[in-house]
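Two quick folds needed for the group meeting slides. Do the first one here.
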Amino acid sequence: MQALLIDGLNLVRRVHAAVRLPHNREGDERAQVEEALKSLRRSLGRALRFHRPTHAVCAWESDTPGWRHEKFAEYKKNRKPMPAMLRQSLPRFAELMSAMGIASLGVEGSEADDVIATLATGIARHGGHSVILSTDNLFCQLLNEGITVYDHFGKRFLDYEYVVKKYGIAPTLLRDFFALTGVPSLNIPGAAGIGAVNARELLNHYGSLEELFTAADDEGEDVPEKLSAGKESALLAQELVELRTNVKLGVNLKDLQYTHVRPERRPPAWENQPPAEQDEPPLYDFE
């Protein structure tokens, strides 16, 4: 199977921000939303043709603050508020996706990132493949044979080579990298005084945040003294940036089937497989 997992607000807000209205309609929020809906339909059409999913779902944010806000009150405090008209119109974007055969999924108290991570890892464990449609590099920590990340706007896969070129580390070290450097867009501080260059060199040398702090406690190791002062902040950041994969979703794969898929447009992996039995149970129950 090939699942397309869409980061809802990431896609909608970027499409909305890219809309350019005529000069005589600049500032017309309602017109901006209407054009964004048209643009989203075109964008999703391209994505569906390119990725050819058998299952497709868009994950949305919960209106209820989640565990990250409870753990760190300043989480996302620097985010620019969503335009009021756009927020009010989010159900229309979900309806548009539904009309195109894409399911919507949101879990009370959970962020879309954790919903997507739970779906992707669950599908991968059962032999399926997922493409995460997002520009959020935090998803790259999930990369493996069953999970890829695609930047729809940059028209590129955020793959192993992308991570190594951008950060100088393997995807498996991204969580620890962001724990040290922090994530400004989420208002998550890392270890004060540790930048990207230091973080890359330290992690490539020691192999993990845990090993790094063990070395920092060893007087015989040449580790920046500032790490000891930033340990608590880095460990908090490590917890906040890690994507949770155990969200109770209450759905199974049959609920997420892409209803417009045609057999001849399925990915090559399906070509030599026998057709499923009529009453075959779902591949994976997410409940």
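Then this one, please, same format:
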Amino acid sequence: MKANAYAKINLTLDITGRDERGYHLLSSLFAEISLADTVTLEEGGNGISLSCNLPYVPVDERNLCYKAAQSFLREFSLSGDFHIDLIKRIPVCAGLGGGSSDAAAVLRLLCDRFGLSTEDERVLRVAASIGADVPFFLKGGLCLAEGIGERLSSLPKLDGYTVVLAKTAERASTPDVYRAYDGLPQKKAFTTLSFLEALRKGEDVTPYVSNHLTDAASLLCPSVPLLKKQLLDLGADAAEMSGSGSTVFGLFRDAEKAKTAAKNINTQFCEVCHFM
């Protein structure tokens, strides 16, 4: 059994406050894009085992794929021997949700194997226990994500844009980025609701592409503002960082401009994608 695990970008990311546990609350637009890992699930072996094409990706309990299989079997009081093979194409620690998407792919494959729906409340509970954005990857498409990212509302697909992803080797941990954000004296304006209104009216959404974490991540990853400028200079209609970084994306109405930009941008990783 095999499944694609698609990446996502945050078209907006507003930080709206904190909950009683201290977690930052979001109002964000998650958009699934065509860049994908491949997850294969095979029965056999001894318990849960995992392999990956990248040597630095852990293949034990630290991997979210492993946690997904383990938590799923425990939740439904099931047993079985499963080997998970993971082909990574989504950069790690990049703000693209690769690990969460891989975990969601494992849950989808296990649901297929045992005849369960991915909309089953118990499956969604398992997904949320692995990571706040794992439930999104069970749903896919374009969603408004609220709370810590677990409250999802599906939206119509955003058409007419080509996405260019760009990333250097720089990375910063999500906790470090949030700590840097908390120390910033000024915060950005909220744009998610304005984006949604423009989307509803069929108007230009690019003025509302924004991420509250960008300035904080830029302190830790100086490549972020440089990549944003490069993408805009190369014709992007909007450019912003995804998640907590350090991947930057450009939205292009002109697909040929997007392809040209991808050839000319100065970075280690660059990919031309479309919305799913």
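Slide caption for protein two: The chain has two domains: 2-155, 162-274.
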